[in-house]
Amino acid sequence: MTWFKRITKGISTDTKEKKEVPDGLWHKCSSCKETYTTDVLVENLFVCPKCQFHNRINAPQYFDILFDDGKFEELFANIAPKDFLQFEDVKPYSARLSAAQRQTGLKDAMTVGVGDVNGKKLVIACMNFNFIGGSMGSVVGEKISRAIDYAIKHKHAFMIISKSGGARMMESAFSLMQMAKTSAKLTQLANAKLPYISLLTDPTTGGVTASFAMLGDINIAEPKALIGFAGPRIIKETIRKDLPAGFQRSEFLVEHGFLDFIVDRHDLKQKLTDTIEWFGTK
Amino acid sequence: MQFLDFEKPIEDLNQQLEKLKALAEKNNVDMSASISELETTIDKTRKNLYANLTPWQRVQLSRHPERPYTLYYISQICDKFTELFGDRNVADDKAIVGGFAEIGGEHVMLIGHQKGTNTKQRQLRNFGMANPEGYRKALRLMKIAEKFNRPIVTLIDTPGAFPGLEAEERGQGEAIARNLFEMINLKVPVICIIIGEGASGGALGIGIGDKVVMLENTWYTVISPENCSTILWHSWDFKVKAAEQLKLTSKDMSSFGLVDDVIAEPEGGAHNQPEAMAESLKKYILDTIKTLSKIAPEKRIEQRIEKFSNMGFYEEL
Ligand SMILES: [Zn+2]
Fold this sequence. Notes:
The structure holds 2 protein chains of 2 kinds.
Chain A: H1 2-13, H2 15-18, E1 26-28, E2 35-37, H3 38-43, H4 59-66, E3 73-75, E4 79-81, H5 93-104, E5 110-117, E6 120-127, H6 138-154, E7 157-164, H7 172-191, E8 196-204, E9 218-221, H8 232-239, H9 250-255, E10 261-262, H10 268-279
Parallel strand pairs in A: 6-7, 7-8, 8-9, 9-10
Antiparallel strand pairs in A: 1-2, 3-5, 5-6
Helix pairs in contact in A: 6-7
Chain B: H1 8-27, H2 32-51, H3 55-62, H4 70-77, E1 80-83, E2 96-103, E3 106-113, H5 119-124, H6 132-147, E4 152-158, H7 165-169, H8 172-184, E5 190-199, H9 200-204, E6 211-215, E7 219-221, H10 225-232, H11 239-246, H12 250-255, E8 261-263, H13 274-293, H14 297-309, E9 314-316
Parallel strand pairs in B: 3-4, 4-5, 5-6, 5-7, 6-8
Antiparallel strand pairs in B: 1-2, 2-3
Helix pairs in contact in B: 1-2, 6-8, 10-11
Bound molecules: zinc ion.
């Protein structure tokens, strides 16, 4: 229980992480509508204590949960997005980027960290959904690419935590090509015989599902995460039928053979430890 | 001949020409001077129009109902072709065709999206939108090509991978992802040619090659202008603007280094002179196979990985 307490403390002292906690002292579960204090939610790793609903969290929380004593080294923090195409829809992309950077304190939707997980080295590339819907642009691709180079150089295991609406349209074909780029880099990791664990969390859709998220030595997911290629709304419009209950959720994907297993956030660290142990990397 | 909205001036002149010809025939008078003058005007008008195409007009051309599709090119450029069916798992996907091809003496595995040419065919081909079976069939054929050391040519023309219920059940995302992963390390030369629409993951799923090239009047990017308009502008009305912003033309894509070459289309677009288009395509394929075959397989794979790994723009602070 000691590390639960530490998380609570960490969040009360860090303003950047504090923003991730739902506003106010009380939190109402969006799934079962139960109300409890935010302290309870944080201590329970943002999982509803009553119905086990897994609230969305980002890199700081995952790193805190997974790395021993919450200690890790952030890698490639200097890589930042650039509006190369000068893309403009109702707003210029550059304005969207600076707004997202202001709101999140992040440079883009990907954070990479390396540290110990119960004494085993792991490189984690974790997507941040709060940054433009976790969309995949050039920075996301480049950070995955460098994280893989780092894992190969140090012979560490590698994990990506996916949480993304898909490609970042404002980077047009460059965002599409990140699918090719990350898949190409993963073949190098595979050739180096190093493990790649893909954790899919709510939501993982579009180009992320159609590239690195589905390419793990094992693909695992948090309970009830939305996982798919096309979004449910588009499918519904295409086939003009209601979609079955539980369609495109983690349990559905296990049933159809696309995930190795579902893991509760409370068990994630231990499962990862056992997995890395089995793979035999140091 | 079907005309697109921006081809109105050509359509009008063409009507005049038809009238003039009819008149000449009916009255049995020699109007060849006027006719040839009008024909010259039509050519000039077409040349001007096609010299200044907007991105949206190119999107329209890429979807022209008379534009040649994969099976047309196969019929024109292959001395022999044996179609191979099925993913050995679920079904045969009609939206992607492929098989043993002989082109100018070269044995290649030819794979491509196929759209229909009439209402019934369009349904059968699912408008060129493949299911996971299509991507898995394509991969199966590529693995055969690799085993028997034959180059691979893919022809890309899709409005996207099919967003259907069964497609999701059978792992559309996994099927595309697997192809990206496998195509990167194929030991034989791989040439990917966008012959029409290059929409997103559905195009990329057979689009990882040593040479990725676009016909002049095609588009290739992460989303169609219509869907981009709907999502970013919250309205269908900004497709023209979206097409501009996405920089999806062959000229843009080649200037970014995201495609390796552009194959010029005949005057008036591929549909205007399909035989000439097929001839250029054949020449490009044969020349490129020759060039790529001179490179050692390990080197080719290394260069392929290198090329895709360098795609992206960012700052290092
Ligand atoms: Zn609950």
